[in-house]
Amino acid sequence: MDSENKNFNPESYIRKELYSFLPYTPGEQPGLTTSTIKLNTNENPYPPSPKIGKAVEGVLEKGLLRKYPNYHSRKLQELIAKDFDLDPNQILVTNGSDEALRLLFQTFVGPGDVVVAPDPTYSYYPVLTEQMMVGAKYLAIPVLENLHFDLEALKKSKGKLLCFAHPNAPTGIAEPKEELLALVKSFNGLVLSDEAYIDFAAPDTSLIPHTKDHPNLLVSRTFSKSYALAGLRVGYIVGSLETIAWIRKLKDSYNVGILDQVIAETSYADKDYFLEKRNLVIQERSRLKSNLESLGFTIPDSSTNFLFCKPKPGVSPEHLYLSLKEKNILIRYFSYGICKDYIRITIGTKEENDTLFQTIQTFL
Amino acid sequence: MDSENKNFNPESYIRKELYSFLPYTPGEQPGLTTSTIKLNTNENPYPPSPKIGKAVEGVLEKGLLRKYPNYHSRKLQELIAKDFDLDPNQILVTNGSDEALRLLFQTFVGPGDVVVAPDPTYSYYPVLTEQMMVGAKYLAIPVLENLHFDLEALKKSKGKLLCFAHPNAPTGIAEPKEELLALVKSFNGLVLSDEAYIDFAAPDTSLIPHTKDHPNLLVSRTFSKSYALAGLRVGYIVGSLETIAWIRKLKDSYNVGILDQVIAETSYADKDYFLEKRNLVIQERSRLKSNLESLGFTIPDSSTNFLFCKPKPGVSPEHLYLSLKEKNILIRYFSYGICKDYIRITIGTKEENDTLFQTIQTFL
Fold this sequence. Notes:
2 copies of one chain form a homodimer.
Chain A: H1 3-6, E1 37-38, H2 52-61, H3 74-84, E2 91-94, H4 96-108, E3 114-119, H5 124-131, E4 137-142, H6 151-156, E5 161-165, H7 177-186, E6 190-194, E7 217-222, E8 235-238, H8 241-248, H9 258-269, H10 271-293, E9 306-309, H11 317-326, E10 329-330, E11 343-346, H12 350-363
Parallel strand pairs in A: 1-10, 3-4, 3-5, 5-6, 6-7
Antiparallel strand pairs in A: 2-8, 7-8, 9-11
Helix pairs in contact in A: 2-9, 3-9, 10-12
């Protein structure tokens, strides 16, 4: 054994930017065997389309698993394109929307570039900015006291890329589409509208149709939430033909597996089932909001499948979070900035929401 | 519509390193309905484990698709670790081995760093070096005339990372393990042994067990070839606890879906089926090699599921490739360097190999 080699220290070989890099912190994962009520990662409380079983059988029977999947997830591209009257090549299907965001950043965010975003928003954006390891800067523009975007400040900001979640997370608030489009028009760089939760918002609030006449606009989506497919890794990003072609250059050849492609296609095409479950979540959101408000919670109108709740004065959100955790109910608590005054609760099934409500009632 | 915005030109926003970046070129994908014999991307000719069907049903029945998968693909980590007597955290499960390679490069390959590799080898390494967009350099060390690694030149080379496929692609040659370990010991940087095809090599030739006492050694693997799961995206990388912990910092939270995890686990655990099909491929490899040699082909001993074949003098490999394509048989032809004198043929089923052989015989 070579002694130099025995003493090999990986730290002296890794890129120095990684020393201080802190990865994104996903929600806790309790053991699968527990009776935990899991309302901490915005998963859908209902199962995905029942048509999936047969579609999966088809893949196995046709012996497709041994073959490489289509590079472009072509059928899914076409289904989505048809819905929005777009060219299929305006859609890049990715391994979750996380991959879409990573590719977008990698394509555009170079040394010294500035990424602008409201604060709070999806906390993966600052992580990605760091992760590029090119010395890019992250400019966080605080939301207003009412938790809405500070649109004036965002419009005045300068940067290579402006990112926001629409509706926003963790606030759940959807800004008016016209305001967002005005922001897209005025921003002197690319704008990402991250629409992970848009299916729970009012109809026709997505910015996807506007990618046609706003060449600096990109929209990302995921199958994880509204399609109840967090267990798959499928998302996509929509933009102009040219912008998407640049982003596509950086993706792995086969980034989305055949089962992921077929299950996403099947779920996407089963529109009746999708709408039924989506509407159930929206109904439950309204019911849970009223119930919690009756206990003194302040909750902005949510356009997502979660509620961002400020308990009544004197009740510590962190204490409430920990107390629910003891009772086997997981919600999300973020200990930074204005978020530390709130808890985020994913909409569960009627039964889960009732158990949550009763447990909070007892706690108070 | 803002006129400045209408004229938005993505090219002025993308990172300048992307202008000249050429993505990896995967093998051609014929339409799924054709009767094409596809021997161009080293897919397994046999189906994956028949136990997969029930495992998939289990995932659907338990309603796991709506939930986020385990971050670490924990069960798969544990199965692999047990086989090699490693700590599960020495294994990072990834979205295909492509993701493993990307994360490895991203962790270690910074501005001005040198990546060393034999030439030819897996042509994704130079693509990745470019893709890092940090001004890293790629140093290709030509193989010897007999297509074996130039071990002396590799030992003398200096760089941050040395990558090779073991067995090598597209040559199919496995260098003696002792020679590779000597190279690992002498190289003053990290060494990646990319073992995509190792299951088709002689037993006990993997470098995985040696990650225990060679802290600068990393080994990548994939389920695409020997496990007949190219349709999934599952691979992994093995190294010291410390090195893997650094690489893990950069992965997306949920990089491998629940179906991918469960199917990979099931296939990995079904060792009898695996060995049976692996042995069939090895038998066919030997038979096809003899047949082609009887037609004057020169073929190095293959430790993979493909043959790297030089036709007899006077026969153009490119012409042969195109002629087979016309007959609906796809093989791989690389038009650069020494590869341009060869064709690469994936081992198919007995019937596919016979059709291929007869078609070549007729062509000659």
